[in-house]
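I am still getting used to backbone structure tokens and would like to learn alongside you. Label the sequence line and the structure token line clearly, so we can match residues to local backbone shapes. Go ahead whenever you are ready, and we will take it from there:
>
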Amino acid sequence: MNEKRSHYRKVFKSDHLGSADLEDLIEAKKRLVFTITHVKQEFNISVAGKKGNFNIAYFKEDIKPLVLNATNSKIVKSFCNHSPFVEEWKNVLIELYIDNNVKLMGDIVSGVRVKKIQPNVVKPEIKLDSEKFTKAKEAIKSGNASIDSIKKNYSISKEVEQKLLEE
């Protein structure tokens, strides 16, 4: 039986990522790996019905922003050469999970946590005589890409790099 189920917390409007949002993604069999584009300190905003000052992480993927508590902030900081400055926490790959043992005002609740080990994402490889090679060569030739920009997104051998730079 494949009926749609509704999490009880969905009726409580939240502008920020919570465990109920992650449960939806888990149920849809989505991997919980996301890219933080930037973190911004926001002052006097409402989170879970309370006004305060918060570090908010925004993502490349289409998901709600995440309020970074002290625990998650320390982990993100460790992925950013231990820089304490949130302005330097950009383009950071993280994996999230639900921790069912978070203490909040004396209660044990579910919370969103950042895994302590950064996920490893394998870049696709560009091989000689492939369609990706042809497109990369054209992009370099037209000035729309550089070898460095291609290497950020693809794995290439020294031989492929030399061939891309020829001409």
The mean pLDDT is 89.
